[in-house]
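Model it.
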Amino acid sequence: MALTEWPAYKRIAIDIVSAQGSELICRDGRRVLDLYGGHCVNTLGAGDPALGAVLARQWNNWSFATNLLDHGPRREFLTAFEPLLPSGDWSVFVTNSGAEANENALKSALAITGRRKVIGFTGAFHGRTAAAARVSDTKRPAYPASPFESLRLPWSDLAAAERAIDSSVGAVILEPIQSLAGVQEPSAGFLAGLRRLCSASGALLIFDEVQTGNGRLGSFWASQHYGVLPDMFTTAKGAAGGFPIGLTVARAELAAATPEGLMGTTFGGGPLALAAATEVSRRIAAPGFLEHVRDVATRFRAICVRGPVQSMRGEGLLLGLVLHPGVKAASVRDQLLAQGVLVGTCDDPSVLRLSPALNLPADSPARLSAALDVVSSASSTREHVSSGARP
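Modeled.
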């Protein structure tokens, strides 16, 4: 009997054999513009030469180290990562994924406050582990029981938050922009209102920046973009440009107050992951990098609201293409793929997602625009034929 893979994913029917930068290369030689970037993972695109050289050099020098030993890549990462952070004193704990980073933020917050309640929001996604799943708004429960008391509030409803956030709440966790829900932005004053409520009640405010961080919004972090400082924030995905990593960042006094032995990891903080994360941190901090992100985002907004796309939302290069009523995102995704452009879908069946490499070529919006025109033209022809008219 042949070994089969667990049927967890509905894969797209396209035969990719390699990738370079923001191009996926098919077995038949066709090239596909990758505007999905592996769910915000490929910060520097596929096969970045400098990142590859860093990993090869680190592998040959020191491939793995127990966390009982300090090593140069850890010190180099702290030096490179610090200038990206909001003002203040921070501490970071390294793991392997965004779910782990969120788990650590939540258990630390509950241990520090001595409280048992966590508030999350409709539309949220924080991961598939026990605590992260509990504060996610998914179609089916991931676990039969919760590791803590939780309450889910309507997204961007500050009045509901004012009623719920009191001295029983240990943590409030949210994505500053909800990606999987359809790139849902916070309403004006919502994040600042949560900051005020948490400060008054003693709850800790946690930003899940797994997707909004690492330069994706045209700033290093959503907290800087919106001008609201959390007590903790997490990131993963693009932080090491494709190498698995998770980062839990907390105000230094909170890290110091976390009970000894609460945190731990085998692979987190290894030399390879931190060497990759150091390269990514240096690159996104380089002059002109974030300006490029903002410039390309502006081009997408200027020329890609056309054809099946009714409007666009999001910030930087985390964008949601809102389709006209009745148009299905999965169908448009497949049609765009036939034109050589890969985009993503989400939990909202009327929204496509863009989360490409942050250094993608400046002509990428024009390629998407041309593909949208073809999709629109093909759709018009089908409607014309179905109405009984001659094409």
